Amino acid sequence: MFRAGHLADLSLADLTVVADLGISHLYDFRRGFEQEHKPNHPSVLATVDHVIHLDITPGNHSGSLEVVTHTGSLPAETHQFMCDINRELALSHQSSFKRVFEGLLTDPDAIVLVHCAAGKDRTGFAAALILLALGVELDVVMQDYLLTQRYFLPHEQIPALRDKYGFDGVKDEVLEPIVATRREYLQAGVDAMLEHSGSVEGYLLDAFGVGAVERQLLSERLTETV
Fold first, then answer.
1. CA-based angle 197:77:168, to the nearest 5?
2. 17 vs 68, residue with greater confidence
3. According to the model, what pLDDT value does residue 30 have?
4. For helices 212-222 and 122-133, what crossing angle results, to 10°?
5. What is the C-alpha to C-alpha distance for residues 64 and 4, in angstroms, rounded to an integer?
6. Residue 149, pLDDT above cutoff 50
7. Interval 176-200: pLDDT, tens
8. Could you tell me the residue range of the domain that residue 199 belongs to?
9. How many domains does the chain have?
10. pTM: predicted TM-score of the whole model, two decimal places
11. Which residues form the Tyrosine specific protein phosphatases domain (predicted)?
12. Which CATH number belongs to the domain containing residue 67 in this structure?
């Protein structure tokens, strides 16, 4: 299983790397507008057997990004928005993440790529769910999530965010929390899981029907003994 951002701007070298992964199932969490803005490279789509669009719109319950972000916004407000949408991922988008679990459980040979626009929030949460289901300690899951800081650099992404949403007049320091990768964001989603079900294991069972049997099956399919 792999996670990524959008696959629109891949170089020839990138395309070779992706082709060598042998992806069979691609789960795209982007909404329609995002898919049109940055369509995945046709060479990738041509080699994938199953492309599943799950269309997660962050903030459609807590207030959209376009509403929260304006010329009068403060950095603390966009930071809180990012925490809120991670809670929302846990509480309001369970059906989309359940589809990923179902794919992993029903096809033993699946090689899965999950992605959104940045590979950070929607995708980062999906990856965290899978790792937690495999019994990975939360501290290690958090370290994996924070690896995004190496590759998704805010100073490079703020111009792209302006291009995508037209945030003219909005200060960089207000936009920075949106493209940042912060521990508090994923922790907000985990906290929501615990509030919902009392434990990670309880949440996995309640939200996705992933109990002990399913977790063992995932472990057999997605891990190696070393």
1. 130
2. 17
3. 94
4. 100
5. 23
6. yes
7. 999 999 999 999 999 999 999 999 9
8. 2-222
9. 1
10. 0.92
11. 95-150
12. 3.90.190.10
